Each structure stands twice: as C-alpha cells, then as structure tokens.
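Entry 14. Ran structure prediction on the chain below.
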Amino acid sequence: MESIAQNTCRDGLDNNCDGEVDYDGDAAPVWPLTTHGDMSCPVDATGVSAEDPYCWNVTRFVPVNCTFTTRGRMGNVTLTDRLGTTNSCNVFAGWIGASSTAMFNCSMAGMVSGPAVVSCGINGAYSYNTTPAVSFGEQLNALNQPCPIGICSRAGICIDKVPWDATVLDDLTGTIIPGQVNITIDDTTVYVNLPNPFSLTVPVGNHKIWASMAGYDPRT
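Output, structure tokens:
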C-alpha cells in the first residue's frame, strides 16, 4: 500500500505496482522507473509570500516563497501583472532550512507596474494535488513609489536614502551666494561649511531644512 498514512510516500518504491512512486516519482530506484508521484501521495501548496510592495523593473526578479505539504519538485509558480501577462517562476532558488518552504524567482520581463498576483500551485507533470493553487496580491511599484524601506529607484531597487542637490540663493537678486553654507535637517543632523551649491545624501521622506550663511538670515 502506498499512502501518506502508511508512511510509504518517500521510500522510493512502487508499493502498489501502479507505475507511480512516492510524492513526485523522483526517488524511484527500481524498475519500472517513473517520473510521476502516486495518486495516494498528493502534494498541496499551503502558503505563498513575497516582499510587498516590490520595485518594478523588467530586468529583475521578484523573490517568492511557496510552502508545500512536503518537499519535492512539484512547484508551479507564476507571476501575473495587471494586463494579464503571466511569467513562470520556476527558477528554483532552494529550500528554507529544513522546512517545506521553497524559494523561487519570478521574472518581471515584459510586465508593467501596478497590481500583480503571485500563484503557487502543483506541477501536474510530477505530482497529484487535492487543493487549488494559493495566491498572493503583489504590488509592483515604479520609480519614486514606496517600498518597504523607502522608495523605488530608477534601477528598480528599494532605497532608503536619496541624493539631494541644492543651492542657496540671495532672496533679492536670485543669484548664488558665494561662500560656505551650514545645513540643519530635522533639528538634529547638522552639516557645516558646505560649498554652495552642495550635495547631500538624505533619508527618503519630508524633512525640515534650515540653511544659514555668514551675513544672511537663516532660511527654512
């Protein structure tokens, strides 16, 4: 008898002589060799997760984690954008520790930014399943849109700091004030004796900025 209850779904044997072996057929060491799992040893996808939102870039991949009832070669993972373009994510990146959660990489090639759906299911070429695929709503964000630690860069990478280029001008003439400038950000971070114009790397978000120069009233 081949079944999960009998603990015979990973012994490499065709216990009931039906030409199908274990969860996915991959462990069969004896004739007749098979490439498919047994009907009494189904595998199901039980969970899916991904970093959300994720920065959209057609040259990059979305890392996705799919949890199954057991390990094997059964993953059928897809990423579908808001226009219906679907990419296979069967770029297997390994298992997480000793768990049955597998890591996949989903290509964004040919896709547009916006809402998307990641789906984790079972590859019927290797295994039987009893439940449908599980899905996860993913947001693919474009340039300057939010991501978990900040905003999406032009390269499609989530960044928490951005370059800030600024110039202190004379209020009356509108011309650049020669000399050095002192900058205070959010009443805590202080930069002194910067050239004017100047360039800084600052955290993403809205900030209170004070600028002061010798001989001039400070400005915020």
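The chain has three domains: 1-41, 45-158, 160-212. Will compare against last week's run tomorrow.
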